[in-house]
Each structure stands twice: as C-alpha cells, then as structure tokens.
Amino acid sequence: MNPVWAMVLAIVAFFIVLRLRNRGKRRTVSREVFARRIEGFQVTGYLHPEMSNACLFDHGMQFGKGFRRKDGPELPHDENCRCTTIPFSFTSTEVFNGALRNIADIPGTLDGMTTDTSRMFLETLKRLASQPIPDSSDRFLEQSGLEGFPEKNREAIKAFLETRFEFLKEHPTAAGPTEKPKSEAPTEGEKSEIGESI
Ligand SMILES: [Zn+2]
Q: Which of 25, 50, 86, 155 is the most buried (most CB within 10 A)?
C-alpha cells in the first residue's frame, strides 16, 4: 500500500475512535444527571363539601418510576371528583430541601386560608372520615374541633362542614372507605383471589 494512503487511513481511524470515545463519555454524563432528578406525579385533590373519602385520602399521593407506587389511582374517583394529576421533576437537592412536601397543598372552595390552616382542615376531614357519621350536624361540628381554627376562617369552615354532613348522610357510600384509602385497595389479582374464595 502507498505509505501516504496508509497514513491518511491511520489518521481517519484515529479520529473515528476519538469521536466514538467522546460520545460514550457524553452519554454517561447525561445519564448521571438524569439519575439525580426525582421525577413523578402527584394526585392533587380539591376541597369541597361533596368530595368522597377516596379523593380526600388520595390527595398528595406521589407515584412514578422511582416511587413505591408505580401507578396512580384511576381518575375521576367518582362523579364529584375534581382531583388532578400533576407531574413534577426535582433535583436531589430540591428534594432534600423539602420540595416533595411543598407541592402537597390542596386547592378548594374555601378562600383566605393559610397553608397551615388548609392542611389542618384536611387532616380534620380525614379524622372525621375515620369515625362513624354522627346523628346530628352539631355533633359533627363538635367532633371537628372547629374552635381550634382561626376565627376569620371559622364561619366558612362551619358552613363547609354543615354541607358535608348533609352530603355524607345522603351518600353514605361516598363516606367509605374509612379504614383504608382507596389506593391501598387490593390489586386486581388479589381481588380475583378474594372473589374465588367466596
Ligand atoms: Zn378524586
């Protein structure tokens, strides 16, 4: 072979090898950056007096590839459901600084509540959901611990709870499940096993 051609071939081969190696390096770097991001979805409920307990308990549920739950609940939960699923993507530093907790705020029909009050109200509704529905609206209000809420929100919360009480009385099926949130329900496989054993 002509020595000049051999040299040209050697140079071309050298650049091809160099290019391939660099490409490999770039891929490794981008994979590392990807791995450091936490990506998933969150169910965000909507506080309204006629929401079912399924919506109440599924609010804040996070799911996706890197989470214990790979799939979210089937939405809408029911005809009153106003839940949505929002995607999120955080770096590990943001997660460390509480980013996953901060997206758990719930919108709703009650205006003028601080984030803390809104969370407290959500917890109250969950607590009420785990108790049998009392006979009277007064008893329901008593159980809610209404006095513990800021005075400026109390009237609106009282009206919300009164409407909710009426709704739960008329729609006892929406009141369940109380023990387990819907997301903890048996999987299809488990269900069919239960079905067979009955
Ligand atoms: Zn829902």
A: 50
The range of the structural domain enclosing residue 47 comes to 37-178
pLDDT at 189 exceeding the cut of 90: no
Asked if the structure places residue 139 within a domain, the reply is: yes
Could you tell me the distance, in angstroms and rounded to a whole number, from the CA of residue 122 to the centre of ligand 1?
A: 14
Between 118 and 185, the higher pLDDT residue: 118
Q: How many CA atoms lie within 13 A of 58 on its CB side?
A: 32
Residues with C-beta atoms within 5 A of ion ligand 1: 55, 77, 81, 83
**Each residue of 57-73: pLDDT tens digit?**
999 999 998 899 999 99
Per-residue model confidence as pLDDT tens digits over 26-69: 555 555 555 578 899 999 999 999 999 999 999 999 999 889 99
- Cα 179 to ligand 1 centroid, rounded to whole Å: 17
Residue 124 lies in a domain: yes
Burial of 48 (0-12, 13-18, 19+ CB in 10 A): middle
Is residue 146 included in any domain, yes or no?
yes
Read off the pLDDT band of 193 (50, 70, 90).
very low
Query: SS3 for 157-183, per residue?
Result: HHHHHHHHHHHHHHCHHHHCCCCCCHH
Number of domains in the chain: 1
